[in-house]
Amino acid sequence: AGAETVKRAVQLDVASRFQESLVCYQEGIDLLLQVVKATTDEEKKHRYRQKISEYMTRAEDIKKHIEKEKQDGKYHKQIRIEENATGFGYEKLFQEYLTEIVSEVWVEDPYIRQVHQAIKLFQLYNFLRFCELLVKGPCKVKTIHLLTSYDEGIGRSQQITALEEIKRSLSNYGVTLNIDFSSSIHDREIRFNNGWMIKIGRGLDYFKKPQGRFSIGYCDFDLRPCHETTVDVFHTKHTKKM
């Protein structure tokens, strides 16, 4: 398993998919270290240790390369979330980019509005869950800008009422929510004023409906199966404002 994982790391490395390659190198090294511990043949141990040393050196080089890309504003990381995958709650995707200097956030998503009729679970709740993440810190968010589209028909008044309630609740934590609507919005992205930009193919609503109100995954998004989607993370030196 260790050899196969390292082989995959090398393939990703050659393809310049450095972030994924680094993860595979780290996993492969851990597996190979376990093999070394279980091996009694000293000659084999020596060969394994040589290879592990080479892979560790390459992993460190990739780390430095990634850090330089971040500093130069050229960083790009892509996460592919498979159908029915779990472990991709908002903390998993966003936490590492929510540094202490983050004070302003832009959310652009046309569908902060619809209702899953079967269990009355609003996509608005996804936005609320994201806001809760921002309030918890360690970032010091003071302003959130939301750009979305109006719901259709009778759902519009429900949408506005819910967003206004979120706005009032955020104000209790010293956070201002600015809400704007657009009939032509199509992009889905989240931006932080420390330069990070996250684009999710399905926006914040990439989770599947839970099987029931008392099923595992209803409250903890890490345990909820996801729809297939792609997450792209960029770093730019100047965050565009709406």
Instruction: Write the CATH homologous superfamily of the largest domain.
Output: MITD, C-terminal phospholipase D-like domain
How many distinct folded domains?
2
How big a fraction of the residues is strand? Answer: 15-25%
On the 0 to 100 scale, the average pLDDT is 86
- Contiguous uncertain segments of 5+ residues: 116-121, 238-242
The rounded distance between the terminal residues' Cα atoms is 48 Å
Count of extended strands:
9
Gyration radius over CA: 22 Å
Question: Shape from CA axes?
Answer: elongated
* CATH class type of the largest domain: Alpha Beta
Question: How is the CATH topology of the largest domain named?
Answer: Endonuclease, Chain A
Named CATH architecture of the largest domain: 2-Layer Sandwich
Number of helices: 6
The main pleated sheet reads as:
7 strands, mixed
Work out the helicity level: 40-55%
What's the helix-strand series? HHHEHEEEHEHEEEE
Q: What structural class do helix, strand and pairing data support? A: alpha+beta
Pfam families: MIT (PF04212), MIT_C (PF16565)
InterPro entries: MIT_dom, MIT_dom_sf, MIT_domain_contain_protein1, MITD1_C, MITD1_C_sf, MITD1_N
Domain MIT: 1-71
Protein name: MITD1 protein
